[in-house]
Amino acid sequence: MFKIDRRFLLFMLIVASILNYADRQIIAILKPMLQEELHWTDADYGHLAAMFQLSAAVAYMFAGWFIDRVGLKFANPFAVGSWSLAAMAHAFAHTVGQFTLARVALGATEALGTPVGIKTIATAFEAKSRSLAIGILNAAGNLGAVVTPLFVPFLAAAVGWRHTFTIVGGLGLVWVAVWFLSGAWNAAALNAPEPDKAVAPAKVKWSEVFRDRATWAIMGAKALFDQVWWFLLFWTPDLLHRVFGLSIKEFAVPLAIIYLMAASGSLIGGAVVGQLIASGWSVNRARKTVMLVCALLVVPVPLVLFVKSYWLAVGLLGLTLAAHQGFSVNVFGIITDVIPAKRVGTITSLGALSGNLAGMGVLQLAGILLTNGVGYMPLFLMAACAYLLALLWIHLWLPVLRLANR
């Protein structure tokens, strides 16, 4: 075991986040291939995606409690190891029903990823560097979404889609081995007043959770805006294939650019807030101003359906996801600002629960609308106003953001 610091811990969280998104996104990239081989309809695919969201939503009801109770040392490797095995299980599916079971398992286990990552950062990093650390972690997921479309089509062409699921899922098991061999969890104790408690279980009272206005602010906001992310994550490859006629290999670079832009939004959203606070702005003013700018940047997204060039569509979609990530990193920042550390995992999970339930509904709706020839327009109109409504909701519940006692 070698000397561990926060940078290595953050690196491990970054790799875990990349793997999380890679395992999640593979099915969207391979959709044209799988649909042709297994004869899925758009409604079948929408149902698969919705079941992923439903299982994640149910798991989120317990994920935060589990993480807060088990502690960071074991919660992190349990999360990565379990979702990696679930990802590998896709290789053995032959029917829509079997794929559904694999997606349910993946959704339930990936539900641990976000709350354990946010709790680890909330524990290991000081307030002044927490926003940037969360932004980097948020960007890491987008890096996974950038890398995945660049190599998955070619890997699938070389070894087949079944071995692709096995290879990508197996990378998570390597991560688990590195976690235990390195002792990465020790870095989480560096910022804690009582180091032994930093990675230890914590008791959480549900009465305290639901009496807190911040709980309802986060849950409502996540329901309003997270559905846009899930819709675009699962349906953007289909949009590029259906509307602009791009093949799996042809939409690899456009998808990578979209998620590279999204990653930049995450980094900028966290860094700008940090700079504003350092210059004397209050946390409340800094976060809500940046979130308002992000919300306004999403408004033009329905124009995607009217442009002739797919590169213009890529620019609009990339701007939308960059704004989403800038908005999202500040919602996570609000959690770490106003929620006591022992409840961060629980509140993060409840927010993700709300977002996944909303995402489930939108993904199911997308499959139905496309199967019946309605098209994408209602979904993009919903996306255009989602972030303004989410910010209004947060402001109604939390007019002023006040830092919690850690």
UniProtKB/TrEMBL annotation:
Subcellular location, record wording: Membrane
TM region positions: 48-67, 136-161, 167-193, 256-278, 290-307, 313-335, 347-370, 376-398
Membrane-topology descriptor: Multi-pass membrane protein
One GO MF term: hexuronate transmembrane transporter activity
Organism: Caulobacter henricii
Protein keywords: Membrane, Transmembrane, Transmembrane helix
Pfam families: MFS_1
Principal place of residence: membrane
Protein name: Major facilitator superfamily (MFS) profile domain-containing protein
Domain Major facilitator superfamily (MFS) profile: from-to ranges: 9-402
GO CC terms: membrane
PROSITE patterns membership: MFS (PS50850)
PANTHER family, sorted: HEXURONATE TRANSPORTER, SOLUTE CARRIER FAMILY 17
Keyword Transmembrane helix set for record: yes
